[in-house]
Design brief:
single chain; 62 residues; mainly alpha; 2 helices; elongated; IS982 family transposase
């Protein structure tokens, strides 16, 4: 079982990965020209979603 400190550590690792991945994705993807972006900010960050998925897979609940 993962402790509270372990969950926090996993979250920070996932958050750092998401920041790095978003920066690399923005750097190497093509930008649309003259089109507006219609993206609403999600209520949960990518790192929070990733943490839930990691904890689900680690829980053995299947």
């Amino acid at each position: 079982m993962i402790t509270y400190g372990g969950v926090t550590e996993i979250f920070y690792m996932a958050d750092d990965f998401c920041k790095f991945f978003d920066a690399m994705t923005a750097k190497y993807t093509l930008k649309p020209t003259g089109k507006r972006k219609y993206h609403r900010n999600s209520t949960m960050s990518k790192a929070e979603v990733m943490l839930i998925i990691i904890l689900f897979h680690d829980s053995g609940y299947r």
